[in-house]
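ESCALATION

Customer reports they have been waiting on this structure for their group meeting. Please prioritize. Original submission:
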Amino acid sequence: MNIILFNCSKCLFNAYGKVDMVFEKFIARLIRLSRINRKKSFKLMVLFVDEFFFLAIIPWICIIPSNMLATFLTISFPRHTEILIAVISIPTGIFISIWSVVEQWKRGEGTPALNAPTRRLVISGPYTFCRNPIQLGSVLYFLGLGTLIFSLLAGVIALCISLFAGLAYIKLIEEKELELRFGKDYIIYKEETPLIFPFIRKRN
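Update from on-call: job pushed to the front of the queue and completed.
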């Protein structure tokens, strides 16, 4: 029995080591990309593709499974309430995301796209309120779109899925990359600024 447990633990440790190595290589690649001075035309092109996926492709990947899960639950809300939530959350999410992209372009000399990232640490504009305003805009947009097309429950599930996926990327890759690139400046910013939701701050 002890031998079996030992072998299982060894396999899990090796698997974790391989996954961690993949993340490290990916982070190293992102750092190399950040050092390349991209032309404005290239940044505009990748930004257009990135936003197309954000607005048109990724939402469906998230919302359709959310609606499938929502059909198993018998919770419903008045349609006028759902439309009101959608009308508020969709433009709010888009506005926050666009504001964040503009700030990255102006202050960070880059874009949210992986192959044309910012060259400077951005802590102004929406980044004053939270470290990941694009993620905040995304979850609001997914909430509104899922609610408008299907139901509020589907929208809430879509919000949870997109939030979980975003947090996984932020914790496993983004924060480590930014600490390596910007060092103490990012660490101080990280300690002083909420992660996604502006009203949720660390307790001292």
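Sent to customer with the following note: Residues 80 and 86 are 10 Å apart (CA to CA).
Escalation resolved.
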